[in-house]
Amino acid sequence: MRKIGIVLLLTCCFISGYAQNKWVVSGFIKDAASKELLIGATIAVPKYKTGTTTNAYGFFSITLPADTFDLLISYVGYAPKAYHITLIADQELNIELTEGNQLKEAVVTSEKVNQRLAEQTRM
Q1: What gap in Å lies between CA 89 and CA 116, rounded to an integer?
Q2: How sure is the predictor about 115, in pLDDT bands with cuts at 50, 70 and 90?
Q3: Cα torsion angle, 7, 8, 9, 12, sign
């Protein structure tokens, strides 16, 4: 009976150690200048074809297997960032993004054509 108890204990320890091959990467994404939290920023892991977005507090959390991979962070109007991570334990990343290239103003103009509607429509 004692041998069975020892075997069960060793099996449980082995299984719990083997099962812990996934870790959490979490943190906040902010604007570098104003320190404002960025809502809806995208965090992508191309190697695993997965990702997440920040919540209403600028917080993200993603569970990934223990491995080495690239983490890509992007947000509209900001320069994207890439991090090369070796994940062997839970990791916290607080990321600050800087504004990217701004588009120049576009002006759209048109001229009114003095034609009757009946003359423009063709069947």
Answers
A1: 72
A2: low
A3: positive
